[in-house]
Amino acid sequence: MSKPNMFVRIxxxxxxxxxxxxxxxxxxxxxxxxxELEIESxxxxxxxxxxxxxxxxxxxxKAKDTVTAIGRGFSPEHAxxxxxxxxxxxxxxxxxxxxxxxxxxxxxxxxxxxxxNGKTRKLIEELTDASVVVYGHTIGFxxxxxxxxxxxxxxxxLINGSQHHTVYKYLQKKRTEFKKQRLxxxxxxxxxx
Length: 193
Hints:
The chain is α+β, with helices and mostly antiparallel strands and 193 residues long. The protein contains 10 helices and 6 strands; from the N terminus they run E-H-H-E-E-H-H-H-E-H-H-H-E-E-H-H. The N and C termini lie far apart (47 Å).
């Protein structure tokens, strides 16, 4: 009987990052998720096979997200947020789905999302606590569902042509809401929690 597995294709130039120096990145993913990675360096194909030691088959999905995140431009350190925090998710926007094959539109929008000297991307990260990467034709996000949703909405606003200051105001408002929610958790008497 074959073992449960998943397949993902990453850009060939990211295969080396996935393997890591002396195979350390690959090894860490295999150990943490109790999976085996079968990497085809020529095509960028990665088969993620559930190890016989695995007790929870859902680790295949987290392992797939981690491999995909590295393939979509995240450094292994940022992708390993998915290992450390059970609540973190990976999501991405494929700009080809929005603009088709128009390289000039994709390049223009990537410039808007990155901003001058990376200011816009950094601000999205700071105000949402989500990691954001612009790579190739995709925009990737890692963080809690709520934080990724806000970061994704901010990027979608930029894609749709919103002005930067409008997006910054939206992000500031959401950050204030997050802080307020955190304070409410601390202020409630124990019997209401």
